[in-house]
Specification:
It is built from 17 helices and 13 strands. By secondary structure, the protein is α+β, with helices and mostly antiparallel strands. Strands 4, 6, 7, 8, 9, 10, 11, 12 and 13 form a 9-stranded mixed sheet that branches. Strands 1-2 form a two-stranded antiparallel ribbon. The chain is rod-shaped and about 135 Å long. It starts with 13 loop residues before the first helix and ends with a strand.
């Protein structure tokens, strides 16, 4: 702790020591910093300053700068500074060299002061002048406006980029979901999934090479390899209903429908193609359609069906639908729906129609009108006749959100309720083959039966085939498909 060598007083810090020397030993009488007045003590000097030199009030916001000593205003900071030098210059004169006082230099000009408070007020003049000049400078205000506009434009641009990036991400997600990305199609998925099965020990390498060779042969000829097909189910159902009719009053069945289920190559996206194979298997057994299908003798594989739909688009069917797929299906995992099935069937000169059950017509979101329409499709006369009717009617393609299935018949129960019989491409072969056993019972039929309360999707679309088209009718329907419409019920 430093000690004053003149009086022995102990001071806490060096700055306090300097102030002590200045006040107690260097100044004989305290002198007013604003006028020549001197006082015998600091208390008297403080009273003098408070009474004779009251502090001027702050300059109004945005007003001209003021003199810190007398409050006089000036048009600019320089004018006030000139006023201070002329009127109050004796307060700013630096002390004579060698008197021991500390000097304070202005950081913004060459002014030197002996009092730090006066220097602070002097610097405030510089700052006030800068603010005052900005307030009266219209160009400065315009620059601020332009800067604000520029910042807003940059923010809007950044938001636009973020929005575009988000939309691009969502679009790519939809592309992946519906198989419209560049991840390959049936062949690529088959190979990838078979390789995965080998890696997990579920498939022997020898089986992998055999199945790969069979697949490549199937794709080369454009014919389904039949590995997912189950035949004879309709015939087994006829036998069952004739022997075990129980609660069923009458039943109508399509003739000769084979069941096809999804494979490693189309799992997750191939239901529409598999339902077309089911429909086509029945049409090929019906002599009524021999002329339309004379160029088709075997069930085509999925890539071949994709090419057939592309050919229909090239003929001019459903151009709006084709544009959604960029006119390309082959080599993709694109989902197809009722419109693509209609275009393909019509291009083959098959007379068909799309019925759109666009909203529920029964309680709890059910579709009783759909069941009534299917019953009307299969039966021209509900009274009399045999209890089991194997009709020449082809099965019905049925589409709803995210999936499609094939209606192969309908039951009319003794209590007058209706029950659809449906082939689902998601049902594997080993489950369908249970229906072929002599011991089949109601438990096995649960795979096929769908009552009114079982179909509660918001919307269903069906495609039904009913005859052939003449060449002229085909042209007319192709022209009508330029703006695709469907019959809506209700």
């Amino acid at each position: 702790m430093p000690l004053c060598e003149l009086c022995g007083q102990a001071l806490r810090t060096e700055p306090e020591m300097r102030r002590h020397l200045l006040r107690a030993h260097l100044e004989r009488e305290p002198r007013c910093p604003l006028c020549p007045f001197s006082a015998p003590g600091y208390d008297e000097l403080r009273d003098h300053v408070d009474s004779a030199h009251p502090e001027p009030g702050p300059a109004p916001a945005g007003g001209p700068p003021q003199c810190p000593f007398c409050g006089e205003t000036g048009a600019s900071g320089r004018q006030v500074e000139a006023h201070v030098r002329s009127r109050h210059g004796h307060l700013l004169d630096p002390p004579a060299p060698g008197n021991g006082q500390q000097l304070y230099e202005c950081p913004m000009c060459d002014l030197v002061c002996a009092n730090c408070q006066i220097l602070q007020e002097h610097v405030d003049l510089h700052l006030e002048e800068h603010r005052f000049s900005e307030d009266i400078n219209v160009g400065g205000s315009l620059s601020d406006l332009e800067l604000a506009q520029q910042l807003q434009n940059e923010e809007d641009g950044q938001q636009g980029l973020e929005e575009a990036r988000r939309e691009r991400g969502e679009f790519q997600k939809l592309q992946r979901q519906y198989g419209l990305d560049s991840s390959g199609g049936y062949k690529q998925q088959s190979l990838k999934n078979m390789e995965r099965e080998v890696a997990r020990g579920r498939m022997q390498p020898s089986e992998y090479h055999k199945r790969r060779a069979d697949m490549m042969e199937s794709l080369a000829f454009g014919v389904d390899d039949g590995k997912t097909k189950t035949s004879g189910v309709i015939e087994a159902l006829c036998r069952y209903y004739q022997n075990e009719i129980k609660d069923v009053r009458r039943v109508w069945l399509s003739t000769g429908v084979d069941h096809f289920h999804s494979s490693l190559g189309d799992r997750g996206w191939g239901c529409g193609y598999r339902n077309f194979q089911m429909l086509l298997s029945s049409l090929l057994r019906n002599d009524m359609y021999n002329d339309c299908l004379r160029d088709i003798t075997l069930i085509p594989c999925i890539p071949k069906i994709q090419s057939m739909i592309e050919d229909a688009w090239k003929e001019g069917f459903d151009p709006q639908g084709a544009s959604q797929f960029s006119n390309r299906l082959h080599g993709t995992k694109a989902w197809i729906g009722a419109c693509e099935i209609y275009s393909l069937l019509t291009s083959l000169r098959l007379k068909c129609q799309i019925i759109d059950f666009h909203k529920p017509t029964g309680p709890f979101g059910t579709h009783p009108h759909l069941f009534e329409w299917v019953l009307s499709y299969y039966s021209s006369n509900r009274e009399g006749g045999t209890k089991v009717v194997c009709t020449p009617k082809p099965p019905i393609y049925m589409q709803h959100q995210g999936h499609s299935r094939t209606i192969v018949g309908i039951e009319e129960r003794k209590n007058r309720t209706l029950c659809l019989l449906i082939f689902d491409p998601g049902c594997p072969s080993h489950e369908m083959q249970k229906l072929l056993k002599q011991s089949s019972d109601d438990t096995s039929l649960k795979l096929l039966r769908k009552f009114v309360g079982s179909l509660k999707n918001k919307q269903y679309q069906i495609v039904a085939v009913d005859g052939e088209l003449s060449p002229e009718e085909k042209v007319a329907r192709r022209q009508a498909s330029q703006v695709f419409t469907a019959e809506r019920i209700p």
